Amino acid sequence: MTAYISATFKELTRKRVFLVTLVLTFVFLLLFAFGVRGITGTAAAGISPAERLVSSLTITVLGMFFAQFLAAFFVLFSAMGTITGEQENGLLLAVAARPLPRWKLYLAKWLGHAVWIAVYSALLFLSIVWAAHRFAEVPLLPGDLLRGFALFIWMPLLLLTLTMLASVYLPMLGSGICAALTYGLALFGGLVDGLSSYGGAPPVLVKITFVIGLLVPTDSVYRRSLYELVGGSDWAGFAVSDLGPFSIASVPSNAFLLYTTGYAALLLLLGCRAFGRKDL
Fold first, then answer.
1. 241 has pLDDT over 80
2. Cα separations (Å) of 4 from 7, 96, 112, 221?
3. How do the residues of the chain divide into helix, strand and coil, expressed in percent and rounded to 5?
4. CA 272, CA 45: separation in Å to the nearest integer?
5. Taking a C-beta distance cutoff of 8 angstroms, is the pair 100, 1 a contact?
6. Confidence bin at 221 (pLDDT 50/70/90)
7. What is the DSSP string of 88-148?
8. Between 49 and 120, where is the model more confident?
9. Which of 129-138, 142-151, 157-166, 266-275 has the lowest mean pLDDT?
10. Within its chain, how far is the Cα of 238 from the centroid?
11. Which own/partner pairs from 194-203 qualify as long-range (CB within 8 Å, at least 24 positions apart)?
C-alpha cells in the first residue's frame, strides 16, 4: 500500500497543474506581502493603535479568505480525475489487477493526495500569517495559531474526500464541476451567514444555508479556523464583526468539528465501497 501512496504522490507532482499552482501561489503570496507592507506603512501615520489593529486584522481575514480559495482549487484540479480519469486512459485497470484490495487502493490514492494538499495548505497558511504578523503586527497567540493552522488544513482534506467520492461516479470533468459547485454552495452559505449579523438575510435563506453547511461543511471549518486565528481570544467581536459578508456571525462548535470527522469517515467509507463495486 505504501508503494501506491508513493506512486500517487509522484503522479501528482508530474502534473502541469501542480507546477502552475505553485508558481501562481508564489506570485499571490509575494503580492500579498508587498500589499500588506504598503497598506500598513501608508496608514500608520495619524491613526490610533485600535484603528491600526482593526486594519491589520481585516487584512488578515481577507488574506485567509483568498488563501482558502487557492487551497480549494488546488484540491479540485489535482483530484477531480483521480478515479474516472485513470479509468478512461486505462491506467486504473492495470493498477487494480494487482493483488491488493480495492479499498486499500482507494485509501492509498486519498493519502497520496492528502500529503501534498496538507503540505501546500500549511505553507500557504504560514506565509499569510507571517506576512500579517511581520508587516501588519497582527497579535498572535501560539494556541490560537496552532488551532487555526490545524483547522485550515482540515478544510481542504474534507473537500478532497468529497471530490474523490464524486470521481468514482462521474467523469473527470463532471466530478470537478460537481465538487466546485458544492464548494461554491458552502462558500455562499458562509457569506449569507456573515450578512445575517446585519439582518440582511431572510430567515428562510439562513435555514437553507445551515442545511448546506451540514451537507458540505468546508466553509464552516474555515470560519472556525479564522475565528481561532484572529478571534479566538478577547478580539472575538472586535476583530471580525464589521466586515459585511466576511464577518463571522456564528462560530461552529466543537461538536460540529466532531461531526466533520464522522462526515469525512462516512465519505471515505462510501468511496471505498463504491470503488470496490465499480466496473473497470
1. no
2. 5, 11, 8, 30
3. 80, 0, 20
4. 58
5. yes
6. very high
7. HTTHHHHHHTSSS-HHHHHHHHHHHHHHHHHHHHHHHHHHHHHHHHHHS-----HHHHHHH
8. 120
9. 129-138
10. 25
11. 194/243, 194/244, 194/245, 194/246, 194/247, 194/248, 194/249, 195/244, 195/245, 195/247, 195/249, 196/249, 197/241, 197/247, 197/249, 198/244, 198/247
C-alpha cell, 48? 490610533
- What is the spatial distance between Cα 126 and Cα 257, in angstroms, rounded to a whole number? 22
Q: Are 231 and 147 in contact (CB under 8 A)?
A: no
* CA-angle at 141, arms to 75 and 230, nearest 5°: 55
Q: Show the CA angle centred on residue 235, arms to residues 252 and 207, nearest 5°.
A: 30
Average pLDDT of the residues in 233-256 = 64
Please work out, in degrees rounded to the nearest 5, the angle formed at the alpha carbon of residue 191 by the alpha carbons of 189 and 197: 105
* pLDDT surpasses 70 at 96: no
Q: Is the pLDDT of residue 129 over 70?
A: yes
Residue 6: predicted pLDDT: 65
**What is the average pLDDT across 96-111?**
76
